[in-house]
Amino acid sequence: MFITYLRRELSHRKRQATFIALGLALGVGLVITVTAATDGVRNAQTAVLHALYGVGTDLTVTQPPAQGSGGPIPFGFRQEIKRARSGEIAAGTKISINDLANNQYGTLNASSLSTVASRPGVTAVAGGLALSDDTVTGTIPSVSLKNGGGSISSDFSTAEFTVDGVDLARHTLGPLSSARVTAGRLLTAADARSDDALIDAGYAAQHQLGPGDRIDVGGTAFTIRGIVSVPQGGHPPDVYIPLARAEAIGKTGPAALTGKVNTIYVSAASAADIPAVQREISTALPKATVTDSSDLASEVTGSLSSAASLAGRLGSWLSVAVLAAAFGLACLLTLAAVTRRVREFGTLKALGWRNGRITGQVVGESLAVGLLGGAAGAVLGYAGAALIDAMAPKLSATASPPGPSAVTGQALSSRAQSLAKSLSSAPHTVTVTLAAPVTAQLILLAAALALAGGLLAGGFGGWRAARLRPAAALARAD
Amino acid sequence: MYELTSVTKEYRTGHGTVTALRGVDLVISDGEWLAIQGPTGHGKSTLLQLLGGLDRPTAGTVDFAGQRLSSMRESAVTQVRARSIGFIFQSFNLIPTLSAAENVETALVPLGVRAAERRARAGQSLAAVGLGGRLRHLPAELSGGEQQRVAIARALVKRPAVVLADEPTGNLDEDTRDEIIGLLESLWRDHGLTMVLVTHDSAVAARAQRTGLLRDGRLTVRQPVPQPPG
Q1: 3-state secondary structure of B112
Q2: Which DSSP letter does residue A402 get?
């Protein structure tokens, strides 16, 4: 009888049932579309951050450079200038200086890797050396340098490319983690001590390099084994070489980098562990700067950031508002239907139907409408998400190191340096395509929302029906 | 079957208190057919509602089959209605979306009768009122007289002890009225029912064993004057 009565009532009130279901469908569909779009924006953000930060890397550990170390002028060149000033090198002498230098960071002993690895919540660590290959060529000018006056840097030409020494045994962490091979092959652990290199696709195109060609890094000829591309256009180093070779060739000032790294890539057990791991590492390495991808995310601006903000705020509020309106509409229409059926419920009470059974009937009808609305909402939401997929709007994310006004104290200064590693020193814009993935959880959410709407409306309607005094209901009917 | 003692029923309205029944005393025996007459708004339907446990008196008591109906818990009154009391209304009060048979079945739902038995009993009950061929018809597809027959079948399908009929012929033409009253009379006799019938129609009231007149909430019960045959 329950099902028969329910079916007959709904088919009798087709227009009203359809209206309520459509209202719920609109709300549910909007929730699905907005949630899918928000997920899409989040995925896009993740893709951008992965491109800039490295897939699988949750934290990076760096250390500010020591006072007076490094700088924009290569150490070797500074030495040559000293010699020129002291007269050891005569004017007119042609020089060509090439350094693979650690200009950006302080160095960390390799033992820091095991220190970090032993922290609770850390699942993997990998060391890296972010270096710069600087070449200065030119002729010593015929000016008096003995008294130390004047600048001679304008008489020389410089060339620079960035080089990352990567731990090939753990390349799932760090700069190679998000790289895709476009030609040749990746380096493997077997290449750890060889003079083999990978180069970035952009750098390769610019310099017309390919697998099998050779490239000079810090005065050593490396054979290019593969061309790699970072997805979504992250700003990768120009050249990747084995970490052991970077240690052997690279220098911090005059000092060799043997047994040193300047970046430690850390993977945490779960996203929830990241803050605790970050605190643990900061405690264990007090001079180090520990950054996570959220530090970078906060520096991301552009339409992706705007879309994230829009989806997170306006989208959510719009969904809630439409859903609340749909719920309110469903409640009002159900109450109106109950009011119209006062005589019917009065009769059923006269026949001995308990309040619970009458309430159950109203709730059942409302739930059925809710389910129809949920199903229609899922279709609408799926269509909305498909529309977003079809339109594939492009979102840009601009990440730049914090400006001077934003840099206060060591932490931010270090963060700026950390960012600079990924971004060089210039703002970097990444374009991503927005997709709106509809997941099984979203469909379940739709069903739950629709049922909640039905339950709410049915609950109100049933409560109203249950409160009716049979005599009053019948009197009204007559 | 029923014993009403000093029953008063007042309604509070926006304009004050309206007294529908004033100190009504009434005894209705098992198997009796009592007709209640009176002008509109003088308490006939109120009396029927108190007899059916659809409302409670403001003062006085209503006893039904030895139980104090007027002070029972609502759930117990609901059970009494479900088991022992059949209602027939002036406007038939059929569920418009359910077929004739399904409407009759609604009276068996609160008794927990299984679906197959419900269908069988509904069919028998409709056949007993001459609607065996109209089981699947919706109320809108039936005439007024047929709808009232469905309502009678619904009232009787649970084999109640009492039938309370509120103007059962009020919306029917004269021929149909006679058919329905004839049907009720034969069912009353065949099933040994106690029947209380509210009507404006003296011709209908004349068929009852006793007649009560409600005027200004006061009930006067009298024996009917026998009508000459023909």
Answers
A1: coil
A2: P
Q: Based on the fold, state whether residues A7 and A78 are members of the same structural domain.
A: no
Is A298 domain-assigned?
no
Domain range for A38 is 2-50+304-477
The nearest CA of chain B is from the CA of A464 a distance in Å of 17
Lowest mean pLDDT: which of A62-66, A74-78, B42-46, B74-78? A74-78
pLDDT tens sequence across B138-180 = 999 999 889 988 999 999 999 999 999 998 888 778 888 888 8
Q: CA A199, CA A214: separation in Å to the nearest integer?
A: 11
Kindly report the number of other CB atoms within 10 A of residue B72's CB atom: 17
Q: Which residue has the tokens 């979306």?
A: B97
Residues 6 or more apart in contact with residue B27 via CB below 8 angstroms: B2, B3, B4
Q: Which residue of A has its CA nearest to B43?
A: A475
* Confidence (pTM): 0.61
Q: What is the predicted ipTM?
A: 0.91
Instruction: Tell whether B146 is within 8 A of chain A (Cβ).
Output: no
Count of CB pairs separated by less than 8 Å, A with B: 87
- Which residues neighbour B92 within 8 Å (Cβ) at sequence distance 6 or greater? B139, B144, B147, B148, B150, B151, B171
Fold observed for domain B2-222: Rossmann fold (3.40.50)
Distance from CA of A355 to the nearest CA of B (A): 9
Considering only B6-10, B135-139, B148-152, B183-187, which range has the smallest mean pLDDT? B183-187
Give the dihedral of Cα atoms A418, A424, A427, A431; nearest 10 deg: -100
- The chain A residues in contact with chain B (CB within 8 A) are 1, 4-5, 8-9, 11-12, 343-344, 346-354, 357, 469-471, 474-475, 477-478
Q: How many domains does chain A have?
A: 2
Q: Which two tokens stand for residue B7?
A: 């029953």
Whether the per-residue pLDDT at B230 is higher than 70: the answer is no
Task: Tell me which of B18, B69, B106, B198 to substitute to probe the interface with A (most A C-beta atoms closer than 10 Å).
Answer: B106
pLDDT of residue A394: 73
Note whether A436 and A37 are within 8 A (CB). Answer: yes
Query: Alpha-carbon distance A278 to A180, whole Å?
Result: 29
Distance CA(A104)–CA(A416), nearest Å, equals 11
How far apart CA A22 and CA A16 sit, in angstroms, is 10
Residue of B nearest to A473 (CA): B54
Strand bridging mode A122-139 / B85-88: unpaired
Question: Are both A76 and A169 inside the same structural domain?
Answer: yes
- Is residue B55 within 8 angstroms of chain A, CB to CB? yes
